[in-house]
Amino acid sequence: MIKLVWLVPLLPLIGFIIIGLFGKKLSKGLVGIIGSGVIFGALAIAVGIFFELKNGVQKEYTVELFNWISAGKLSIPFSFLIDPLSSLFLLIITGIGFLIHVYSAGYMSHDEGFSRFFGYLNLFIFFMLLLVMGSNYLIMFVGWEGVGLCSYLLIGFWFKNTAYNNAAKKAFIMNRVGDLGFLLGIILIFVTFGSIGYNDVFEQAKNMGSGDTTITIIALLLFVGAMGKSAQLPLYTWLPDAMAGPTPVSALIHAATMVTAGIYMIARSNILYTLSPDAMNVVAIVGVCTALFAATIGLAQNDIKKVLAYSTVSQLGYMFLALGVGAYTGAVFHVMTHAFFKALLFLGAGSVIHAMSGEQDIRKMGGLKKYISTTHITFLIGTLAIAGCFPFSGFFSKDEILANVFEHNKLLWFLGILGAAMTTFYMFRLYFLTFHGKFRGTHEQEHHLHESPKSMTIPLIVLAVLSIVGGLVGIPEALHGTHYLEAFLSPVFEASSFRLAHHLSHETEYILMAVATAIMIGAIYYAFTTYVKKGILPPAEGQDLAPAHKLVYNKYWVDEIYEMLITKPLNLLSEAFHKIIDNQLVDGIVNGVGSAVSWMSGTLRLAQTGNIGFYIFVMVISIVLILFTQLF
Amino acid sequence: MITEYLFYLLSFLALMFASMVVLTKNPIHSVLYLVLTFFAIAGHYVLLNAQFLAAVHIIVYAGAIMVLFLFVIMLLNLNKETEAHKSIWLKGSAVVASGSLMVVLVGALKGAETIQTTNTFNANIGLIENLGMTLFNEFLLPFELASILLLAAMVGAVMLGKKSIK
Amino acid sequence: MSAIQTIPIEWYILLSTVLFTIGVAGVLIRRNAIIIFMSIELMLNAVNLLLVAFSSYLSDSKGQVFVFFIMAVAAAEVAVGLAILMMVYRNTKSSDINILNKLKW
User: Rounded CA gap, A456 and B127, in Å?
Assistant: First the structure.
């Protein structure tokens, strides 16, 4: 199976090419089958690779395809690194990707851009696979940029809407800021280690001392890249806006896979971070700040997808918090469980929106559990999972992260548990407002309410099952389980683990779990009393709000602040450049050269009188001059 | 001594007649002076032991080409001093230009190194026998090509000279 | 007694240079196309003379063969050139080269 690894990214690429070239001529059904089929093929190979890796002795394969770039000292092969970490990501990407492709076949069936959508999705999967499979930073970067491109294309999928296009541009440009950091990091890695292959770099890094300044700078630069891609403070504002894209895109790209690329990158470079405690502290602090910040915003949002978007940002913050305290396994574990339940929630939200004929405001929903029961149950499972309810998957991954954080720093743990409480609250607020109470939409919408087709509900059910059992691969010792995931991933994090050994007593862990569960139950109860018992609705648009509520409702005015501090000055500056430098100086030079030449040639033209005698005269003079210069 | 005097005489004649070609106003006179110049040059050829070439020169140039010139002048009825004069400063600048050309050429001659002849002197190379050997051995192909050139020129001249082309 | 033994080649070079220059001056000074033609013949002859002189001094008959070819080319040139001149005269009733001033922008 390892030999077939090149097929994994190639299949989506072939799908993209076929759909991209002939999509318009093929029927929608055929496009759906091709688009999903190639992903299924990739998934099958990924499963094979996973088991071969799990059962085999050798835990790391480097599959070299061809020599890509060779110039001077720089030699970059196009090769794939297959180890537990990348094979796990392969499974997540192809698995969730396949389910979402199937879902999209139903969700997008009425869209005229159906084949274009599937083409983009396949291209996205191709780049995402490249990102996680590459054996050096450059291939990762190619994939990194490729998924950014696909994200741009898919956010602006309905390109006739200007607001959506602006959201796409915003996502693209903000990612560029991060990418610059990533690129600088790669260059610094090359300058420092003379190579950008993972194995070479990590091998050399192991021998360097802890706290080396260069490594800290590298780690921070890479983290800037991760900030952009994984929507961390201060580069997070693109992700909520990215919800302009079709819902399956939000589920696949902006929840389950692409935004976790930053986590993957740091987990992949774990040695560099382990060697730099300062960088790790930065990662942890940024992570916890993002988690809290996004959670507070999530408390007051009324758009079903926006709430989920902010919860994604917040959950990504948790993952970075885990990375920052050295709990790499915990972070990857949370990536996996988050991929399950967040994809589930987004797809569920998509199903709700589908049923509501495009309505996204939760103030206009309510009481939907009678109408769309499958969606309701799966959505509830997802909500419980994200809230961290035992025994759903979120419980185990969140518990692992919080336990590690507790050991590392009590304050961070407190902030983390605070964020978790808010997460639970706003997720249940969303759930109660959507599915309980009375229907608040228009009569027409009520008449139109219907459960989604099979191609949409089956992925929901599969993801719901995964959200329930997904956590079982990482049961902590305290609960007398086996942490399969930790054992599986141990070769990747081997070099880091000895530096960050941790052991909490089982009693402490029980207490932590109990505290988390108690807080979660409290938050659910509070949400239940507020929104179901008392039936309080979020205030309508334009109503006066309490100052704190107003602040959160308007997302701390971060977009406005960015607009004022960065966009406006930049606009003014570019305006000035346009008017002065470009219009006056550059155009002046260009036009000046042009008019000078035409003036001179206009003058010189008069010398050509047509008088042959004069021509001969000039010829003789020229001959004299040539002879003179040649002979003397 | 005699050859030297002959050289000076012929050179003087050639230069004088050549100047007259350029300076006389009547085209007919110009043609006649040119014929005289050719005769002087033919004399030089004889002095240089190129007797055959001298004969050909007189036949081709003085005989054929110059007659052609005369025909044309008569056909066009140009034997009048109708030529418009160029302005003085144009003529002056023309003289200056050609004078500087001469100065440059002579200057180049001054700077050149004298070649050392390795061949022993052979007075017979200008004879028809030797020329014929060279012409029909080494230069056979160019010779044949020259005939094609002449044919082409003849066809061209006839085409151009026809009154009108249907 | 041949000129070769008594007269240095520089003299011949000088003579043909002067002849050539007279030809050039004729081209520049005159406006009658026929005279210009004759001046060109003069220049060709200056070159011929130089070729023959070198041929004799080097005792190499190739130079004289070249003169033959130049004569052939000159004959061809004169035939075509005069024919063109006839056409021009027929159309413009003049042999003044200043009439032919269409060769410009």
Answer: 110
